[in-house]
Write a structure and sequence with these properties.
Elements lengths: L6 E6 L7 E9 L13 E6 L7 H15 L3 E2 L6 E6 L2 E8 L2 E6 L2 H14 L2 E6 L2 E2 L2 E6 L2 E5 L1 H10 L28 H14 L7 H7 L8 H16 L4 E5 L6 E8 L10 E8 L2 E9 L7 H25 L9 E4 L2 H8 L11 H12 L4 E4 L16 H10 L2 E2 L10 H17 L1
Parallel strand pairs: 13-16, 16-17
Antiparallel strand pairs: 1-7, 1-8, 2-3, 4-5, 5-6, 6-7, 9-10, 10-11, 11-12, 12-18, 13-14, 14-15
Helix pairs in contact: 3-4, 3-6, 7-8, 7-9
């Protein structure tokens, strides 16, 4: 939406039936179509059918071949993304099984491409993108808003908490999780709720940390774990209309926040790394993941988090380069640990970092070559903390707004509206940190 291009949604009817099989696959004669002369014979399939393990791959190979013939190239960063560039004309096509999103800077080329694609497959043009895989898309004058209101409502109904009292934060600041406690009597139900909440984090990054915590006890949850899940759902009840807002940024640059909590897990003392990456003022990638290792120091845990953030930024730069939209400025990573920053900027420290040798050289080479910049950020501006720990309500709400996670933006008549002013203020703060 940086270029204000229109998003088109297409649907392929009976997609799997278009795939051509390269393996020998046989099936019994279907009832009602048995050959009376050869009732014991079987059929050799030339094209895929629904239910075959080969069907998804055969369909994607068929679609990919057709797109390549039409002038598209497959992205190496994301195999589901296809890019068309001819002169000044640029088109992007994203595929998920039989659902397609198409956008570009030339409406006549898009219309011609849809016509040619319709000659190959049974395509249904759904018009402007409004709902994709449960994600609801709303448009504003200055960007778009992604939400999962209907999906969140479904979770509330499944958990029988539709009439529950909402709460302001998903987890108390003093909460801790252990395997001790009374076992929960329905682990399958617990897993289904946690799995649903994991998908909800696509537009609710503010619950990523809490969902990460309850996901670690899927095998043998306790009543305390289930109460934590119910608390998350009660938080969703109060923020059911919340989502992510993406703005037309006046300037695009890649800015990442890297953080880690050292030995926070009481039972294993493993650390969790987290990051949030912005393109301009828009949150495009985030993560909160527990590592299966124990760090010897806070510097080690922070540096490993820095290396994981760097790997994600490298992937984003490769993707943006293929999209022909790579910002001219080098990416910047903000970290609140001065020891980790010192290691990333000084080659003479390698004797101190033999236990994190690979991560050390990976980050340090990018910094010394000028492809990456690392910088200190104070803890009160470390937005990645929302993925690392349970925060007090004022700080939690502040960081949540910085991530552009909140209610649908409202534009007031005759002006940019309060949300537009908030966007300008946020962009000024992010730009000052670069």
């Amino acid at each position: 939406m940086l270029h204000k291009w229109h998003l088109h949604q297409l649907d392929v009817k009976n997609a799997f039936l278009n795939g051509h099989l390269t393996e020998n696959v046989f099936m019994e004669q279907p009832l009602g179509f048995i050959n009376s002369k050869f009732p014991g014979h079987v059929c050799q399939l030339k094209k895929a059918l629904y239910g075959l393990k080969q069907a998804p791959r055969a369909w994607f190979q068929c679609l990919s071949a057709s797109l390549v013939l039409l002038g598209f190239t497959c992205s190496r960063a994301n195999p589901s993304l296809f890019i068309y560039k001819k002169g000044m004309c640029v088109l992007y096509l994203l595929v998920y099984v039989d659902d397609i999103i198409l956008t570009g800077n030339n409406s006549s080329t898009i219309a011609g491409f849809i016509t040619r694609l319709h000659q190959e497959f049974a395509i249904k043009d759904l018009g402007k993108l409004s709902c994709f895989l449960g994600l609801e898309v709303s448009y504003t004058d200055y960007g778009l808003f992604l939400s999962q209101t209907k999906y969140a409502h479904h979770i509330l109904v499944r958990a029988k908490l539709l009439d529950s009292k909402p709460i302001s934060i998903p987890l108390p600041t003093v909460a801790s999780f252990t395997t001790d406690g009374i076992p929960f009597d329905d682990p399958t139900y617990y897993r289904s709720l946690v799995g649903a909440l994991q998908y909800l984090t696509i537009t609710h990054p503010d619950i990523s940390y809490t969902v990460n915590q309850v996901s670690q006890f899927l095998q043998a949850p306790t009543l305390d774990h289930f109460q934590a899940v119910k608390r998350i759902i009660r938080y969703i009840k109060g923020t059911i209309h919340y989502g992510l807002t993406f703005y037309h940024s006046p300037k695009t640059s890649i800015l990442g926040y890297s953080d880690a909590d050292w030995a926070r897990c009481i039972e294993t003392r493993c650390f969790t790394y987290e990051y949030s990456i912005f393109l301009g003022s828009n949150l495009v990638s985030w993560s909160a993941k527990k590592q299966p290792m124990v760090a010897h120091s806070s510097c080690e845990s922070e540096y490993r988090a820095l290396a994981n953030t760097t790997a994600e930024i490298v992937w984003i730069t490769h993707l943006l380069r293929e999209l022909h939209t790579l910002p001219p400025d080098r990416p910047t990573i903000l970290c609140d640990n001065k020891s980790a920053l010192f290691l990333s900027q000084n080659l003479v420290s390698h004797k101190r970092s033999k236990h994190i040798d690979i991560d050390y050289h990976f980050v340090c080479e990018l910094v010394t070559s000028g492809k990456l910049h690392t910088k200190f950020v104070p803890t009160n501006l470390q937005f990645a903390d929302i993925f690392a720990k349970s925060l007090p309500r004022p700080l939690f709400e502040s960081f949540r707004s910085k991530l552009q996670a909140g209610p649908p933006p409202i534009r007031l008549r005759g002006g940019g509206g309060c949300k537009g002013l908030m966007h300008k203020k946020l962009y000024a703060e992010l730009n000052a940190l670069r």
